[in-house]
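Prompt: For my understanding, could you write out one protein's sequence and backbone structure tokens?
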Amino acid sequence: MPYLRIIFSGLLILFISSCTGNEEESAQLRLSQATIEDLEAAVNKYPDSAIIIQELIQAYHKRDNYDSAIALAERTIRRDTGNSYMWNVLASLKFESSDTLGAIDALQHAINDFPLPEYYVALATIYAGMKDKNALYITDYLLDSTSTSNWDDAYFIKGFYYNCAGKPQEAIPYLDSCLASNYTYMYAYREKAIALYDMKKYEEAVKVLNRAVTIQNNYEEGYYWLGKTYEKLNKKDSAIESYQFALLYDKEFPEAREALDRLTKK
């Protein structure tokens, strides 16, 4: 799910920003321009430098070298088992490399060390995608025990859980609560549209998706789901146009490309 990828990308950014103070900005700029070989040498020379480790993990990540990034994160954690930020980064790397259980374990360590709401959000999102009721327990905690700034995510995750569990009617009220609180929450529009789509309420789904792409006109997933919904309504031209918009804003959208090719080759 793209939502999950974005959640974890956000956590990786959180780690980076927390490790960078104003006095280190010039040093970070120099490091960002260094080669991987230079960064590896620097880590060997200064194994306790968070900023150098951060840059090397980022460099590995940019090249999809997850094995090296994970190995470095794990080595760093062995030196400092209470480093919640590094547990968070490890969770992101594990998730992106399809090790869901490893990501859960790392997030649980991060929460034990420093229970940031962002970690709970990430953990609940994973559980929701797995149709695991732990997602509901965690979101209840977020609603009962954290500030209102976390409630949008909590409502969304509840809706996401029920969608994944094949209960779209139960998903919609939570997604509506999310959107009532934050009308720009694009993933809530997507999940509400998916719920309506699964319930065969295609005209209603189109209305939800059109609102989403009006608010954010480069929302590629909104256009993709518009295409799927228009197909159900036998509106081929509108479906083709929607898939074209999805690919305009994300040229690497394989599902949209496949759907467009299928329709235009008929």
Notes: Residues 2-18 form the longest helix (17 residues). The two ends are 29 Å apart (CA to CA). The domain at 115-199 is CATH 1.25.40 (Serine Threonine Protein Phosphatase 5, Tetratricopeptide repeat). The mean pLDDT is 89.
